[in-house]
Amino acid sequence: MLNMKQVTKVYRTDTVETHALNSIDIQVSAGEFAAIMGPSGCGKTTFLNVAGLLDTFEAGTYHLDGQDVSRLSDSQMSRIRNQKIGFIFQSFNLIPDLDVYDNIDVPLRYRRMSSKDRRASILQALHTVGLDARKKHLPSQLSGGQQQRVAVARALVGEPKLILADEPTGNLDSQMAAEIMELLSRINQEGCTIVMVTHDQSIADRAKRRVNLLDGKVVENPTETPAPIRSVAGFAGVKSQR
Amino acid sequence: MVLYNLRMALKSLKRNPVLSGLMVGGIALGIGVSTVFVTAFHIFSMNPAPEKSESLFYVKIDNWDPNRPWNDDDPSSTPSQITYRDMVGIMESDIPTFHGGSFKTSVFIHPDPEIGRPYKALSRMCFADFFQLFDPPFEYGSGWDRNSDSGPEAVVVLDHETNQKLFGGENSLGRMVRVEDREFNVVGVLKQWRPFPKYYDPHNGAFEKPENIYMPFEHFRPLEIRSAGNTSNWKDFDWSDFDQYLASEAIWIQMWVQLDSPDQKGAYMSFLNSYTDSQRELGRMQRPNNNKLLNVMEWLDDREVVPEEATSLMIISLLFLVVCALNLIGILLGKFLTRAPEVSVRRALGASRLSVFVQHIIECETIGIFGGFLGILVAVLGLRAVNSLFAGETFEFALDTHMLLQAILLSLVAGLIAGLYPAWRICSIPPATYLKEQ
Ligand SMILES: Nc1ncnc2c1ncn2[C@@H]1O[C@H](COP(=O)(O)OP(=O)(O)OP(=O)(O)O)[C@@H](O)[C@H]1O
Ligand SMILES: [Mg+2]
After folding, report:
1. What average pLDDT score do residues A66-76 get?
2. Which residue from B minimizes the CA distance to A113?
3. Is residue B127 located within the same domain as residue B254?
4. Which position among A88, A92, A196, A224 has the lowest Cβ density within 10 Å, counted as fewest Cβ atoms?
5. Dihedrals phi, psi of A166, to nearest 5 degrees
6. How far away is chain A from the Cα of B334, in angstroms, using its nearest Cα?
7. In terms of C-beta density within 10 A (0-12 exposed, 13-18 middle, 19 or more buried), how is residue A84 classed?
8. Do residues B384 and B239 both lie within one domain?
């Protein structure tokens, strides 16, 4: 699904040069649920941005869903983001002026779709996250957990193959975090690949695979992982722990 | 997608109604002011005779000094009026449907002493065809017929105002008016008539009112009337001698012809050329043939009747609109950039740079359009004020559909001017930067 070879991302400012990704090699197979962990500043967000085609990188190759996406134009990258990738952020990042329905509608607006089909998809996604009754609410009228559920609905409404989540539970209490993890596991079981950044070991334990980043490099440590991990192969037959 | 973007734009405008009001107001002011002045310019440059402007021709003949062209700066220029002898000469032609020279002068009218003292009035000395060429509307009667030109018969046409003054506005056909020392018989009374510009004779004020009375041209000779308009001359003679005046190279007559087909026009042009050829043989017109037939709009162009002020005010008002639009750039930029996190989310969810750009341009155009409609209101009020300056005139500065469309178009352009840079800035922000925090 996601295959990076020797990908390097350097941030240059006047004084320092940060190798946020230091010729990173990582493969995530279709159907995986991978948790990315590591100390602050090790490059987790940078990795997700590059993986999500929100940021460019200096060197290496990146194949997404079999397609080389290393050097694409803005409109090509936008189309891939729109059709193959769903994003979930720590701070929810809902659009404050739009109600729940319109927020979930956003990704569908950037593809050709009849309003009837859009409506069906949105209602379906709302149902999945259990917020059917709140579609006219503004984000400010929702709890944090509910907002993150809207964000999940918005990420999955376009039926992406890959969901990239940056600390999706970071701003939630453990009860709500558990709910979100439940939701993500369910989505994963339905076939969607998920790559999630987290600081929380107990959250990471719920993913099928853990990847540790340190200073822009992957440090995979199979001994800490409860399930057998093959770094390249998929996860067929392995149940997520809940 | 356009509708969606429109909805997003309206939401954004509603979020900060005061700021939005200021932006719309800024555009409205610019549109209002520029529409007033563009309308004024438009009216000054209007075609005063739309039905006949292609068949009426102003006649120019080059009788000028062999050593100097009419206009020193333009050797191809032709004098703007003609001499009496040339008018007589070319009126021999029976090619034009209607034709005739005329000139403006001033005469004393002697009303019934019970009504008032003698006063000076502007008079046009013209031929019967004048009323066919320019179609002034008649309240009573009509112009005189061609037979009355020779003689000439003592007939007169009064304008509305003069008929009011002399006869209280009654039907005065058949009544007598004393002009200078002769009695004239009223054969026609005009309604209000205000050709704008006064195209048949734009010399001495292209937007002046027409004359008060109209008399057969040839009365000028016994009354020894001279033109009260522009007269130009290049060859000395004794001005005090009326016969020398008539035989001179002095130009003071405006000559018009109606030529209804290209053939007719061609034939008349050859006639003019053979006329000037024959005059050359007589020792006059030593310059090469340079006769001209200008239709109404060509003639007005040639005279440059559109006041310079109208042109420069229009340009200034358009610049004012541009300034209003430029002022919005800063406000829009600030407004858009505070929205960077939201835009970054849209980018993450699949909006291309182009769709972000389009969304924001549409927001700017929404402001522009609202400003445009409000600006039209401002313009209507402005034109009302302008009209009150011209109170009592029969013409009016008014908006027509053409001007309305133009106002809308201008508001779109203003929206674009204001919006291009901010929209470009917001669409080129790197989305990753603004997604970290919200
Ligand atoms: N726009 C940027 N300009 C310069 N340096 C940057 C930029 N973004 C990130 N960095 C640097 O790149 C490194 C990796 O940053 P990144 O945000 O990926 O860390 P992270 O692993 O997500 O950290 P955290 O767990 O705190 O979110 C850091 O050292 C950071 O300072
Ligand atoms: Mg991070």
Report:
1. 92
2. B1
3. yes
4. A224
5. -105, 100
6. 18
7. buried
8. no
Ion ligand 2, residues whose Cβ is below 5 A away: A 45
- Is the Cβ–Cβ distance between A45 and A166 less than 8 Å? yes
Overall domain count for chain B: 2
Instruction: Please work out, in degrees rounded to the nearest 5, the angle formed at the alpha carbon of residue B109 by the alpha carbons of B107 and B112.
Output: 175
* Ligand 1 pocket check for A45: Cβ under 6 Å: yes
Same domain flag for B174 and B284: yes
Q: How confident is the model at residue A215 (pLDDT cuts 50, 70, 90)?
A: confident
Contacts of A110 in chain B (CB under 8 A): 346, 349-352, 355
Q: Which residues of A touch B (CB under 8 A)?
A: 45, 49, 52, 54-55, 74-75, 78-79, 81-83, 87, 89, 91-98, 106-107, 109-111, 154, 158
In a domain, B30, yes or no: yes
In the prediction, which pLDDT does B43 show? 82
Residues 6+ apart with CB under 8 A from B297: B47, B53
| Side chain identity, residue A117 | D
φ/ψ region of B84 (left if φ > 0, alpha if ψ in -120 to 50, else beta) reads: alpha
Could you give the C-alpha distances from A3 to A7, A25, A209, in angstroms and in order? Answer: 10, 8, 16
Q: What is the pLDDT of residues A15-44, one digit of tens each?
A: 888 899 999 999 999 999 999 999 999 999
Q: Is the pLDDT of residue B121 over 50?
A: yes
Please tell me the predicted confidence (pLDDT) of residue A232.
39
- The residue-averaged pLDDT of B418-438 equals 88
What is the domain extent for residue B100?
A: 56-302
Which residues are CB-contacts of B195 (< 8 A; sequence separation ≥ 6)?
B48, B49, B134, B210
Partner residue opposite B349 with nearest CB, options A74, A92, A106:
A106
Residues of chain A contacting B350 with CB distance shorter than 8 Å: 78-79, 81-83, 107, 110-111, 158
CB B255 within 8 A of CB B82: yes
- Relative to beta strand A209-214, strand A193-197 is unpaired
Among B270, B302, B334, the domain boundary falls at B302
Nearest to A63 by CA among A55, A54, A71: A71
Q: B75 φ, ψ to 5°?
A: -60, -25
The CB density around residue B50, as the number of other CB atoms within 10 Å, is: 10
Ligand 1 site, residue A11, Cβ cutoff 6 A:
yes
Q: What is the number of alpha carbons within 13 Å of residue A187 lying toward its C-beta? A: 33
Q: How far is CA B327 from CA A227, B25, B324, B417, in A?
A: 63, 12, 5, 10
* ipTM for the whole complex: 0.89
**Residues near B331 by beta carbon (within 8 Å), at least 6 away in sequence:** B19, B22, B23
Same domain, yes or no, for B295 and B420? Answer: no
Residue whose CA is at the smallest distance from ligand 1 atom 24:
A40
Whether A157 shows a pLDDT value over 50: the answer reads yes
B66, B234 Cβ separation under 8 angstroms: no
The answer to whether the beta carbons of residues B249 and B63 sit under 8 Å apart is yes
Q: What tokens does B160 get?
A: 């509305």
Residue type, A216: G
Q: How many helices (H) and strands (E) does chain A have?
A: 7, 10
Token pair of A67 as six digits: 């397609």
> B51 in a domain, yes or no?
no
Are both B27 and B72 inside the same structural domain?
no
The alpha carbon of B80 is separated from its chain's Cα centroid by a whole number of angstroms, namely 18
Question: Is B50 inside any structural domain?
Answer: no
Q: What is the mean pLDDT of residues B31-40?
A: 90
